[in-house]
């Protein structure tokens, strides 16, 4: 599993978004509001402001889709200003947002071996689908933006399953029938095999998993160190 991503563009935001200056640091905007999406679907969202969309190459990401909407708004009647001036104003008032959605494990998301090549290389068969609550996430975020920026145009440009942080293929669980490793990352059926990987995550948060993986590495090191060894640090 990986956190799926949906992209929303806000047009006519009423402020200068200063596009073209490079992507911002990832922010947790909206996260406190959306921590608890529903009583039975506890997922979080991480919002990322993407300011350099216009600097992308043609057909890269959502550049062309957003550019088409900016041109359409620039051609609207009601202003006699030159097109270049109207385009600059419309683009400056456009905000491109990515939202990374927390994922819960789905039984339909699987990794298996499709075939093994003559040289011994295993070819994986990966099956991945969107979580059922993703549509509700898009609807709630869109409604939230429209309430706080009345008069703006919000466009849902794309959704992608995510392929940056693969998680969950050897997930952690208390028993072998629920997962592959225990709470110490030891493989349930073997005494001397430990799995240190993001694949042990039982679910995928909306934020990047690197720091959590580093913490697991330090904890596993402490667990495996010989008795009587000096503590770290």
Task: Characterise this structure.
The longest helix has 15 residues. Helices cover 24% and strands 17% of the residues. It folds into 2 domains: 156 residues, no CATH class; 62 residues, no CATH class. It contains 5 helices and 6 strands. It has 233 residues and is α+β, with helices and mostly antiparallel strands. Strands 2-3-1-6 form a 4-stranded antiparallel sheet, sandwiched between helices. The protein has a two-stranded antiparallel sheet with strand order 4-5. The radius of gyration is 23 Å and the shape is elongated.
Provide the descriptors you would attach to this structure in a database record.
233 residues; alpha+beta; four-stranded antiparallel beta sheet; two-stranded antiparallel ribbon; 6 strands
Brief overview:
18% of the residues are buried.
Structural Rg: 23 Å
Helix content: 10-25%
Annotation field: number of helices: 5
Characterize the largest beta sheet: strand count, sense, and whether it forms a barrel.
4 strands, antiparallel
In terms of DSSP E residues, the strand content is 15-25%
Shape: elongated
SSE ordering: EHEHHEEEHEH
Can you lay out the helices and strands and say which pair or pack?
Elements: E1 5-11, H1 31-34, E2 45-49, H2 63-74, H3 83-92, E3 95-101, E4 110-116, E5 122-127, H4 134-148, E6 153-160, H5 210-224
Antiparallel strand pairs: 1-3, 1-6, 2-3, 4-5
Helix pairs in contact: 2-3
């Amino acid at each position: 599993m990986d956190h799926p991503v949906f992209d929303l563009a806000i047009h006519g935001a009423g402020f200068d978004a200063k596009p073209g200056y490079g992507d911002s640091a990832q922010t947790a905007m909206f996260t406190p509001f959306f921590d608890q999406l529903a009583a039975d679907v506890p997922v979080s969202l991480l919002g990322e402001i993407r300011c350099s969309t216009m600097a992308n190459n043609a057909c890269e990401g959502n550049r062309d889709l957003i550019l088409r909407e900016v041109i359409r708004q620039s051609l609207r009647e009601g202003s006699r200003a030159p097109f270049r001036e109207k385009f600059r104003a419309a683009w400056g008032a456009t905000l491109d947002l990515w939202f990374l959605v927390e994922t819960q494990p789905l039984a339909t998301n699987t990794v298996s071996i499709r075939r093994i090549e003559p040289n011994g290389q295993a070819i994986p068969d990966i099956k991945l689908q969107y979580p059922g609550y993703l549509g509700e996430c898009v609807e709630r975020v869109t409604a939230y933006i429209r309430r706080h920026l009345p008069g703006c145009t919000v466009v849902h440009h794309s959704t992608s399953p995510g392929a940056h942080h693969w998680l969950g293929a050897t997930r952690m669980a208390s028993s072998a029938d629920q997962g592959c490793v225990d709470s110490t990352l030891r493989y349930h059926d073997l005494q001397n095999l430990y799995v240190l990987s993001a694949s042990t995550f039982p679910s995928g948060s909306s934020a990047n998993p690197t720091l959590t993986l580093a913490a697991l590495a330090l904890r596993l090191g402490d667990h495996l160190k010989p008795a009587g060894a000096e503590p770290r640090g």
